[in-house]
Amino acid sequence: MAFIKTLPAILACCALQTLLIAQTETPPAPKANAPFAAATPGPTLEETTKFIVDQTLSQSPIYHRYQVHFTFQPDMSFATEETWNSFSFSGCRSVSERASAWEGGSLKSNQSVELGSIDPNSITVRDYAQILHINDLAIREQVHDNLSVHLTDVYSANPPVYVIAVKQSSPLVVEGVQKQVPLEVPLFLSADKALAERVARAYIHAIVLCGGGKNQPF
Fold it and tell me: Which residues does 194 contact at the CB level (< 8 Å), separation at least 6?
C-alpha cells in the first residue's frame, strides 16, 4: 500500500523534472534551406533572436505554485521557481541553462536547440499546467503498471504561467529501458500571456528564417 500512495507523488515529480532533463540537442537544418532566409520579409534573424533573448531573460525568475488533483489520492501542491541562468543565440542555434526548484528538490538543464530543425506549425502557447499534464500522460503510456490507468491527474497553476512549447521526441529511461517519448519541451515561460504570444510569433519568424519546416527547395 505504501507504494500505491507514493506513486502519484513520483509521477508528479517525474513530469516536472522531465520538462528539464528531456531537452535534447536537435539536428542541424539542411543547408539547402539557407537561401529562403534572404527572401523572408520582416526583421532580420539577429533582430528577432535578440528580441527573444531580451524577453526570455526579463521574465526570469518566475515563481508559481502548481497543484495536482488526483482522482483517488490526496491533492499535492508544489511551489516552484523557474530561472533562466543563461540564454543566447549563435545564428540559428540557441544555447541556454534553465533551473527549476521546488520544495525538496532542484534541477538544472543545459539546452541546445537548432531552429532550422523545428516545424513552425508545432509551436504552441499553453498554460504550464497543461504541459505538465500532457507530459505526464505521455510518460504514463510508457509505464506498464495497471494502477496508473486508475489515476487521472488535473494540474493547475497559481499564478498561471504560459509556456511556448514544441513537441519533440525525447529520451527517457522507463523501467530500466531508454525509450523515445514525445514530450512538450518549453522554449519560453511568462506570466504574461500576451507577451508569450508575441515571443511565439518571433520564434516562428526565426524558424522560418532558418529554413524550418522546409525539406525541399521548391
Answer: none
Omega of the bond prior to 159 within 30 degrees of 0, cis?
yes
The DSSP output letter for 30 is P
pLDDT score, position 41: 74
pLDDT in tens, 98-136: 888 877 788 888 888 899 988 888 898 988 888 888 888
Q: Is the pTM of this model over 0.85?
A: no
Residue 215 lies in a domain: no
Q: What's the total number of domains in the chain?
A: 1
Residue of 114, 105, 87 lying closest to 31 (CA atoms): 114
Contact of 66 with 80, CB cutoff 8 Å:
yes
Q: How many Å apart are CA 34 and CA 212, to the nearest integer?
A: 10
For 82-107, letters b (16+ CB in 10 Å) and e give bbbeebebeebbbebebbbbbeeeee
Distance CA 188, CA 199 (A): 8
* Domain span holding position 54: 2-209
Residue 214 has what pLDDT? 64
